Automatic annotation (TrEMBL):
Family affiliation: Belongs to the DNA photolyase family.
Protein's organism: Chryseobacterium endophyticum
Keyword field contains Lyase: yes
Cofactor note: Binds 1 FAD per subunit.
Gene3D superfamilies, per the entry: 1.25.40.80, DNA Cyclobutane Dipyrimidine Photolyase, subunit A, domain 3, HUPs
Lineage: Bacteria, Pseudomonadati, Bacteroidota, Flavobacteriia, Flavobacteriales
Record protein name field: Deoxyribodipyrimidine photo-lyase
Gene Ontology biological process terms in this record: nucleobase-containing compound metabolic process; response to light stimulus; response to stress
Length: 432
């Protein structure tokens, strides 16, 4: 019986790039050859009802690009279509594994999964080593003087910037000679994992100076489409957050602040995992939501009679993207005008958004609903008509997504009475 080859493993998850990848770089410096793997987790994929899910197509393509690149170095990515522990059971039969390297993930389900894998590996005397990669600062690196987490963005961002000054951003190198040489198996096609190809653009994420330099000036105008569209790349790690932050530091503080918001919501989720299912502020659990299913359906389909709301929902349904300013308007409309539970909207966005990120989606929905960790009181209610006058006065965005007939749709509610009703319902809930 031949002796099993001793190797280390690198487990790709939401860090789908070969350059500036912290955990991968550390694995390649470890002294043993590295087998890169990816697990198409059936526990996640089986729950996706839409088999033309653009997100699956996106990360499948990203992995295939990496696989092709590694073939040039006589290696490749080994894939599994199963639960993570099952994949590692097979790997431990085939190889003598010293260490499994990966990058940290901070979502509650991911933490549970990683603990399960670590327990299995530990029983086989294999270490699971994880590294900080999807954020600049994690867990307890940006906290108050008493060690407690920040729950308000502005002081958090101020401290974040202070810590950054004394903590130089490191860019990680990739030593391709460290990969395990082997004849790479044929990479699975999308149909092999039960999904279909989509029309998602297959472009390498790039930092566009023309967009980022004027980001603060034009980002709020949906008709201009002057945003980076890097949300999906950050979500799946096809671009390095370190590269983004370095670029933002040189070119635009407004965009840097958006990247800090991303980390703020990640640390909120990490320290307060209850927010996945409950309001950050407990008293908001008392809100008497109307939860009218017919009105929710109209909102989902972009048929509320409020053009800016409807255009946003049509854009989301058609493309998997929605302009950030419009996201705030549609979320406020659902929770305040229609008094529908923020969790309904959050779940709909989770299903549709290409750049869906649990922490940001949850944080922003709670912000819109007034029940999150935002310092502002609950009586901020966006007026869709005023938002249109301010940010889409020529209706360039609205006309892109709505027809003349759509613009004749009767409003599902009247703004003034809906606002009054929302303030009344919220007021009663908060006062108990």
């Amino acid at each position: 019986m031949s002796e099993k080859q001793k190797i280390n493993v690198f487990w790709f998850r939401r860090d789908l790039r070969l350059e500036d990848n912290c955990g991968l770089s550390e694995a390649l410096k470890s002294g043993l050859k590295v087998l890169p793997i990816f697990i198409y987790d059936t526990g996640i994929l089986d729950k996706l009802e839409n088999k033309s899910d653009k997100r699956v197509d996106y990360f499948h393509r990203a992995l295939k690009h990496m696989h092709e690149e590694l073939k040039k170095h006589k290696s490749g990515i080994t894939t599994f279509q199963t639960k993570p522990v099952e994949a590692f059971k097979k790997l431990t039969k085939d190889f003598e594994i010293s260490t499994v390297f990966c990058n940290e993930d901070y979502e509650p389900e991911a933490i549970r999964r990683d603990q399960e894998v670590a327990d299995f590996l530990g029983k086989n005397n294999i270490e699971l080593k994880s590294f900080k990669d999807q954020v600049i600062f994690h867990k307890d690196e940006v906290v108050k003087k008493d060690g407690k987490p920040y729950t308000v963005y502005t002081p958090y961002s101020k401290k974040w910037k202070e810590v950054l000054k004394s903590d130089k951003i490191k860019i990680y190198t990739t030593d391709f000679s460290g990969f395990l040489p082997y004849k790479a198996p044929k990479y699975p096609e999308l149909k092999d994992i039960g999904f279909k190809k989509t029309d998602i653009q297959d472009e390498k994420p790039v930092l566009k100076k023309s967009i980022i330099e004027d980001y603060g000036q034009y980002r709020d105008y949906p008709g201009l489409d002057h945003t980076t569209h890097l949300g999906v790349a950050l979500r799946f790690g096809t671009i390095s957050v370190r590269k983004c932050v370095q670029y933002a530091l040189k070119n635009n503080e407004t965009w840097l602040n958006e990247l800090i918001w991303r980390e703020f919501f990640m640390q909120i989720l990490y320290h307060f995992p209850k927010v996945v299912n409950y309001p950050f502020k407990d008293k908001y659990e008392n809100i008497k939501w109307r939860n009218d299913e017919k009105e929710f359906k109209l909102w989902c389909e972009g048929k509320t009679g409020y053009p800016i709301v409807d255009a946003g929902m049509r854009q989301l349904n058609e493309t998997g993207f929605m302009h950030n300013r419009v996201r705030m308007v549609v979320a406020s409309f659902l929770t305040k005008h229609l008094l529908i539970d923020w969790r309904w909207g959050e779940a709909y966005f989770a299903e549709k958004l290409l750049d869906y990120e649990l922490s940001s989606n949850n944080g922003n929905w709670q912000w819109a609903a007034g029940c999150g960790c935002d310092a502002a009181p609950y009586f901020r209610v966006f007026n869709p008509s005023e938002q249109t006058k301010k940010f889409d006065k020529d209706q360039k965005y609205i006309k892109k997504w709505l027809s003349e007939d759509d613009l004749k749709t009767e409003p599902v509610v009247e703004h003034t009475s809906a606002r009054k009703r929302a303030l009344d319902v919220y007021g009663k809930a908060v006062k108990g």
